[in-house]
Write a structure and sequence with these properties.
Largest sheet: 7 strands, mixed
Structural class: mainly beta
Helix content: under 10%
Radius of gyration: 14 Å
Distance between the termini: 40 Å
């Protein structure tokens, strides 16, 4: 029963910061690639960042690169997304996802098998 669950969303002003957390259960956390996605109302889920199970690949979307930092603490089965200099365009539902795909360099969207319910991030004045 692999499960992941996000927390840490909220409402902040532009330029502010939030730290999202995701915890995994029913899994050997360190053997899963973990990622963050976001979804705007009526839209599809877009990758924000991910970190592979062997830590060889850390990916950021261009829109968040330099502002967001993804990290993981495998001993605590925790994934984090530190979001700095938040912008209104960052407003979205943020999802934690896990993949047990065995390779690190060619992960595709369909390889993300386990999803949290989402946590809302709102950036506005």
């Amino acid at each position: 029963q692999v499960q992941v669950m996000e927390s840490g969303g909220g409402s902040v002003q532009p330029g502010g910061s939030l730290r999202l957390s995701c915890t995994g259960s029913g899994m050997t956390f360190g053997q899963y690639t973990m990622g963050w996605f976001r979804q705007y109302p009526g839209g599809g889920r877009q990758v924000v960042a991910y970190i592979t199970w062997m830590n060889h690949v850390i990916f950021y979307s261009d829109s968040v690169k330099g502002r967001f930092t993804i990290s993981r603490e495998n001993s605590k089965s925790m994934l984090y997304l530190q979001m700095n200099d938040l912008k209104p365009e960052d407003t979205a539902m943020y999802y934690c996802a896990a993949s047990d795909y065995i390779y690190e360099y060619d992960i595709q969207f369909q390889d993300w098998k386990y999803w949290g319910r989402g946590t809302q991030v709102t950036v506005s004045a």
